[in-house]
Write a structure and sequence with these properties.
- It is a single chain.
- With 418 residues, the chain is mainly α.
- The chain has one domain: MFS general substrate transporter like domains (Growth Hormone, Chain: A, Up-down Bundle).
- Helix content is 75%, strand content 1%.
- The protein has a two-stranded antiparallel ribbon with strand order 1-2.
- A hairpin with a 5-residue loop joins strand 1 and strand 2.
- Helix 4 runs antiparallel to helix 7, helix 6 crosses helix 14 and helix 9 runs antiparallel to helix 16.
- The protein is globular.
- The two termini are 19 Å apart.
Length: 418
């Protein structure tokens, strides 16, 4: 465990949150831009789902490959190098002139974004003591709130007033600023390099051992299920609101802003509740509470716009509320020496689940002759069913502490679990 001052720790956490903010914005902004992208390239909801999934699938595969090398580099150097590639990927998205080029650019973005997510969580695991890791994870998760409050609304407004590519130009500028701040604030994190690293000939067998470890498999399954449940619904909210309920694309920014403002304040609170009452208990409660808004948004009646603005905070708070304790629990699963590799593999499964959820959801939808999107209610019921399985499955996820012999635990050679 590294020792840095509390002030440096706070600054580092918020820098990582801002880094995560740009990654999340890059992924999230595609969803409210769905109506414009579908119109610009004359594509169907299923094709749009493929564009969302392309990012996630490539992110998952690159994250899985990263598990073979992430623990071989200084975290600082790896973070800055991959983040520079991430900025270039957003420039490629902005310059895409056809749907195939956009798909290729999104794949490039996914390749870089998949590695960044695992590097960020590995840094948290290296620097933050386990007793405060839930709150730290909540701080990182505020990136989703910041993206919803500022990033996505700004992107939607730029897209409405200029074109769909404008938000990606914004991301390029923001990424350059964050990269410079990272160069100044992220310390060298190379203590893990003092441990023996497997030879190249051992990498794939080691990865296979990592993937088939029963404790890891249970954690990976939970991640995959919850991301499928999440992304069955999320990508299609904006297209459905525009096509079925007459919401103007520019008005979508206020919905995301209202929801993001609420989650900005609740993410860290949920993290503290997880630290206090246990990650599994808080996860289950949030999962059950999230079923109602999921079913409501997928069976949405015709409501005035102000009612939608009031509803979105409840929806986003409860959806993000089940992710914070889950992420905190997952940091306790691996042994410290394998944390980077485990989190890379878990990030890969998270991205693959995201892509599969969006793709399956798109396949379940169709367009009516009048342009309305059909089948969203069925998608909502499937999402609830998958999350319900995850709610019971979480009892199978255990931290590394439970795998240690009692004598090791008495020596304090443990890793906490939620």
């Amino acid at each position: 465990m590294y020792s840095i001052s509390k002030k440096h720790e706070r600054r580092l956490l918020w820098l990582l949150a801002l880094t995560q903010f740009t990654i999340v914005m890059d992924f999230m902004v595609m969803m409210p831009l769905g109506p414009q992208i579908m119109h610009s390239f004359s594509i169907t909801p299923a094709a749009f789902a493929t564009a969302v999934s392309a990012y996630s699938w490539c992110s998952g595969l690159s994250g899985l490959f990263a598990a073979t090398y992430i623990d071989r580099f200084d975290r600082r150097r790896l973070l800055l190098t991959v983040y520079a590639l991430f900025a270039l990927s957003n420039l490629a998205c902005a310059l895409a002139s056809s749907f195939p080029l956009l798909l290729a650019a999104r794949a490039f973005a996914g390749i870089s974004g998949g590695v960044l997510g695992s590097v960020i969580m590995a840094i948290v695991g290296d620097v933050i003591p386990v007793q405060r890791r839930g709150a730290a994870t909540g701080t990182i998760m505020t990136a989703f709130s910041l993206a919803a409050i500022a990033g996505v609304p700004a992107g939607v407004m730029l897209g409405a007033h200029f074109n769909w590519a404008a938000p990606f130009y914004l991301l390029v500028g923001l990424s350059l600023l964050v990269w410079v701040a990272g160069w100044q604030l992220v310390p060298s994190l190379a203590e893990h390099l003092s441990r023996r690293q497997p030879a190249l000939g051992e990498v794939l067998p080691e990865l296979w051992r990592l993937l088939r470890n029963p404790r890891h498999v249970n954690a990976f399954a939970l991640t995959f299920m919850m991301m499928v449940a999440h992304m069955l619904v999320i990508p299609f909210i904006s297209p459905v609101l525009v096509a079925n309920h007459g919401v103007a694309p520019a008005q979508l920014s206020w919905l995301y802003m209202a929801g993001g403002a609420a989650t900005f304040f609740t993410s860290r609170r949920v993290g503290r509740l997880a630290d206090r009452f246990g990650t599994r208990r808080v996860f289950r409660i949030a999962a059950v509470l999230s079923f109602l808004p999921v079913l409501f948004v997928t069976h949405l009646p015709d409501l005035p716009y102000y009612a939608l603005v009031m509803f979105f905070p409840f929806f986003m708070v409860l959806m993000s509320g089940r992710m914070v304790p889950m992420q905190s629990l997952l940091t306790t699963v691996p042994e410290p020496a394998r944390r980077g590799a485990f989190l890379s593999a878990n990030s890969a499964l998270q991205a693959l689940g995201t892509g599969c959820g969006a793709w399956i959801g798109g396949l379940m939808l169709s367009s009516s002759p009048t342009g309305q999107i059909l089948g969203y209610g069925t998608v909502g019921w499937v999402a609830v069913a998958v999350a319900l399985v995850g709610m019971f499955w979480v009892s199978r996820v255990h931290g590394a502490q439970s795998a240690l012999p009692p004598t090791s635990a008495l020596r304090g050679d443990t890793v906490g679990q939620g």
